[in-house]
Design goal:
This protein is α/β, with parallel strands linked by helices. It contains eleven helices and 13 strands. The protein has an eight-stranded parallel β-sheet. Helix 3 (84-92) runs parallel beside helix 4 (121-130). The protein starts with a strand and ends with a strand.
Length: 345
Amino acid sequence: MTQTLTLRRPDDWHLHLRDGAMLRAVLPESARHFARAIIMPNLVPPVVTSHDARAYRDRIMAALPDGVDFTPLMTLYLTEQTDPDDVADAHASGLISAVKLYPAGATTNSASGVRDFDKVRGVLDKMAEIGLPLCVHGEVTDADIDIFDREAVFIDRVLDPVRRATPGLRVVMEHITTRDGVDYVQSNAQDLAATITTHHLVINRNHILVGGIKPHYYCLPVAKREEHRLALRRAATSGDARFFLGTDSAPHTDPNKESACGCAGCFTAPNTMSILAHVFEEENALNRLEGFTSLHGPAFYGLPPNEAQITLTKGDTVTYPDKIETEDGPVTVFDPGFALHWQVT
């Protein structure tokens, strides 16, 4: 029996589009369903100034297929040399929607990230003053901290002290992966939100490691124990406006994923809405899917929800290509490991 569900057109509050040939190949996959997206700045070299952000936005718009309505929401990559005035000017002009914090060495192309948080105090103070959100990759990179504990330690050692030292700073904890992250967001009534990815609602660390290493499930932050996955599902489907979708869709070519030192990232842009409808239906929360994908994020960022709508239809099994081809090589599409029956129609 066919079912339909109509939502305001969703937004993606954490997206990697890369650059060059990869950008041209993956952009249509996100623009097909999403009206806006927060664009990650961890290119090589990174997007650190307003000039960089403007040039990157121009490249994105040039790669957008004709007739497609999609707005890239640009971010700046926070470094210890970031100029507070440049950040403020970029925000005032409408060029940027956030600044991104990468602890140095935490993830893909994060070598330019922050090591000494005292050196970015002026930028954070300016952001609190003007209401510009800080998007945080929430992991410590200390060699003595187990990779599965990096998020919880970051909250205690870095995030909470930074927020206490900078009253009014609006923070998005991106791609949370733990019950600790959920609990921290829920314990704070204002100026704090979190994005949750599609793939962290589906996989735990067993999916990566049991029966052989599955490189296309490897991501950073790495998937955790099942108890943490379930905490994320409860948060995403709860209707709590502090949680919203950030896919962290992160394309890498197959040779770069399937290597002796494989890259981190799951490419979920093509099938995210199908997977989310499946997850929310399993949790008896289809009535809350629009909030998670289309309403909570705009509310936090001070933007109106999209007027356009999409319709999801449930019917026979939906198939997606296993890979998309790019000039750089094939990119594998995330496989949730179960049949999908919802699709955008």
